[in-house]
Specification:
Blueprint (H helix, E strand, L loop, with lengths): L13 E10 L5 H4 L4 H9 L4 E11 L4 E6 L5 H8 L7 E6 L2 E2 L5 H11 E4 L11 H12 L3 H14 L15 H13 L5 E5 L7 H18 L2 E6 L2 H7 L2 E6 L2 E6 L1 H6 L4 H6 L11 H4 L11 E3 L4 H4 L2 H4 L4 E4 L5 E5 L1 H14 L10
Parallel strand pairs: 3-8, 3-9, 6-7, 7-8, 11-12
Antiparallel strand pairs: 1-2, 1-4, 4-5, 9-10, 12-13
Helix pairs in contact: 5-6, 5-7, 6-7
InterPro entries: AAA+_ATPase (IPR003593), ABC_osmolyte_uptake_ATP-bind (IPR051921), ABC_transporter-like_ATP-bd (IPR003439), ABC_transporter-like_CS (IPR017871), CBS_dom_sf (IPR046342), P-loop_NTPase (IPR027417)
Keywords: ATP-binding, Nucleotide-binding, Transport
Organism: Sagittula stellata (strain ATCC 700073 / DSM 11524 / E-37)
Length: 359
């Protein structure tokens, strides 16, 4: 799927068409009467306005982790805030489960945001005068939930994110990773359907960041939220995402799975953007395994294992390995020869002359 190519809006959890966010003087006709996004951008530039989001068409599936990424100023955080209802788009349509968000009344919008959406910020945004328990209870307190029920729910979330025993600690007494766990727990207390995370791990040390990525994957496997995640780190996007949208100048240059983006870049910008990506961190065992039975094969390996991680099996075993899906079902067999060949092809792909398909 290439730039701005939508899925089926009728089955999308979040859907937008022709979405713009323009900062500065705006006449809607600059966009609505333009023949193309490029023409609209030219007319906007002539007014000294700036397009933070420019003509985005997007459908996000229920239960997927969808990542917006790009360089600083690409528009990824602005688009996230539009999708989350934190800022109002200038032009276009935006729907949640078929509900028109842009023309929704203030009261209905406030109710939707309180009950169906939640957000995690880069800077944690914890209240320093509240304990861990007090911070996590806050959304339920705002909703007017009684003390006993919100306390029970907050304690459940504390247990979920691994902070049991720190209920009475204040933010200043916690590490950065622990503070972000509080932010994550707080965002989940209302059991939101839509979970927005704006570079939540970028301020953390590398080791803690990897641990928090693993924590997010664990929570998502358990909760199955619809997640919109913002990052500037392609490795992070690869690790956590079902699909990735790469943005530039407010536009989506390409939207697809990680493997399809690096194997089939939509244009020269994307090709340059992913030129230094280590393919062995992106290509998975499932990408290179042919389907088939695995009678008599005792050792298993998850289909989502990257080639980089799978390569360690070469040191311990000659194979073969039964490849399993998320439900533990066998989907094929991976031989030592096939794994070695996939690793060699991944290395070969990391050249300017690489092919446009992984085979």
């Amino acid at each position: 799927m290439l730039a701005n190519a939508p899925l089926d809006a009728s089955t999308a959890k979040i859907s937008c068409r022709g979405l713009w966010k323009i900062f500065g003087p705006l006449d809607a006709s600059h966009v609505t009467e333009a023949r193309s996004v490029d023409a609209a951008l030219q007319r906007i530039a002539e007014t000294d306005a700036i397009a933070g989001v420019a003509g985005v068409d997007l459908d996000i599936r229920e239960g997927e982790v969808f990542t917006l990424m790009g360089l600083s100023g690409s528009g990824k955080s602005t688009l996230l805030r539009c999708l989350a209802g934190l800022i109002e788009p200038s032009v276009g349509t935006l729907e949640y489960d078929g509900q028109d968000l842009i023309h929704m009344g203030r009261g209905a919008l406030r109710t939707l945001r309180r009950n169906k959406t939640s957000m995690v910020f880069q800077n944690f945004a914890l209240l320093p005068n509240r304990t861990v328990l007090g911070n996590i209870e806050l959304p339920l307190e705002i909703q007017g939930l009684d003390k006993a029920r919100r306390r029970a729910r907050a304690l459940e979330m504390i247990e979920l994110v691994g902070l049991a025993g720190r209920e009475s600690h204040y933010p200043s007494e916690l590490s950065g990773g622990q503070q972000q766990r509080v932010g994550i727990a707080r965002s989940l207390t209302t059991d939101p359907e839509l979970w927005f995370l704006d570079e939540p791990f970028s301020a953390l040390d590398p080791l803690i960041r990897r641990q928090m990525q693993d924590e997010l994957l664990r929570l998502q496997a358990q909760l199955r939220k619809t997640v919109v995640f913002v990052t500037h780190d392609f490795d992070e996007a690869v690790k956590i995402s079902d699909r990735i949208a790469i943005m530039r100048n407010g536009r989506i240059e390409q939207c697809d799975t990680a493997i399809n983006i690096i194997a089939n870049p939509a244009n020269d910008y994307i090709r340059e953007f992913v030129s230094d990506v280590d393919w062995t961190r992106v290509v998975t065992v499932g990408d290179v395994t042919a389907p088939g039975p695995a009678e008599g094969v005792a050792t298993t390996i998850p289909a989502g294992t990257t080639l980089r991680d799978a390569a360690r099996n070469l040191l311990d075993s000659n194979g073969p390995w039964a490849v399993t899906d998320d439900a533990g079902r066998t989907t094929g067999v991976l031989t030592r020869q096939a794994l070695s060949g996939a690793l060699e092809r991944s290395v070969a792909q990391q050249t300017p002359e690489r092919g446009r398909a992984y085979a």
